[in-house]
Model the fold of this input.
Amino acid sequence: MRLHFRTAGESHGKALVALVEGIPAGLAIDAAAVDQDLGRRMQGYGRGARMKIEQDRIEWLSGVRAGETIGSPIAMLIHNRDWANWEEVMSAEGTPGELRRRRVTRPRPGHADLVGVLKYDRVDARDILERASARETTARVACGAVARKLLAEFGIDVGSHLVSLGGIRATAPSPLPTPLNAASDASPVRTLDATAEAEMITRIDTAKKAGDTLGGEMEVVVHGLPVGLGSHVAWDRKLDGRLAGMLMSIPAVKGVEIGMGFEAARRPGSEVHDPIVGATHASHLHTDPVDATHALHPHADARGGFRRLGNNAGGLEGGMTTGEPLVVRVAMKPISTLMSPLKTVNLATGTEANAVSERSDVTAVPAMGVIAEAMVALVLADAMLEKFGGDSVAEMRRNFEGYLASTGARWAEIRDTPAPEEEA
Ligand code: EPS
Done:
């Protein structure tokens, strides 16, 4: 891995810390670019009262000078405004007696509460739930925003939209609008289907009244990727695995599908694999902006001069990008904090109890899409650094453009000089 990131912080602690290491020098970035993604993550119909308290913004601690990265680790601080209401409970200097009186002892089914208490030998589930809280994803999104900025330098755009919520499926337009987020962010649930959107909002209202919660699926789509990120040669270099692993680490995520996903397992090969054509035979196909952006060389082509007649593969073959859009779907279970609580055991008394029902969200699926974008951006920025390296963005760009010129030239050569036996 060339790119490392780390987060620290508890949900109601003083602040969150985000650390990204491996970003080359010379990347123009300002706090507004990061704050924009933090703001997007706070949106979504079905969020709870906490999002009215917070106003997530970063403060640079290191790695950026005069609006440019300098190659050193980038550290960012995000204050928790709710800390003011939790200082007594969350302070490092708190008194154990008072904390014991207010401890959380009724673990929520589906949450990290019970297993965490047992594993970490704690008497207060707050020691677990504070870090298991999806609040941590704020810092992930800050790291992902830096990765997104690096990808944008190479014409790569990461977006997402909601494909199902509470069992209601959305029908997305084809082709998807570009840029995708400009369209999906305009919807309160980040979907591109206005009819489904209205039904989903009603479903959220009904679930809220019932004290229940809802899950759903987001689809992340990435345009402008060059062919050949990742590798087939070793398990840990395969991009499918790296993406799935990272996406599965998002709180409450239970499944990841790439391209046609599980449906591919149910169909014959003839209905699954995307036929290959030379770019000159595919002028009717939609082209990604990257082909035009980087056409500095006559043969420069992000897809090496080839196209696919479909994209069931979701932009990945053999653990490598094909140059077609990357399409990944992510499934989130319903939030485990229910206002109509499920049955549990009180850890203080050993008796049957109702699970703790702290203030929470009815659903956070739209926000999960923003978090998934961040995770995908981090994996792809890592793969870009692996392939094109460089201590500065300028060096990385030279490597990138040289590669695009050489892969595009391969197709031009094949097309213009057929082998003698094929001529006959
Ligand atoms: C969360 C519970 C809620 C959510 C929180 C995740 O927080 P609170 O307990 O303070 O009401 O709002 O999400 C965030 C704070 C956030 O920034 O996304 C949980 O238990 O996971």
Summary: The CA atoms of residues 151 and 263 lie 30 Å apart.
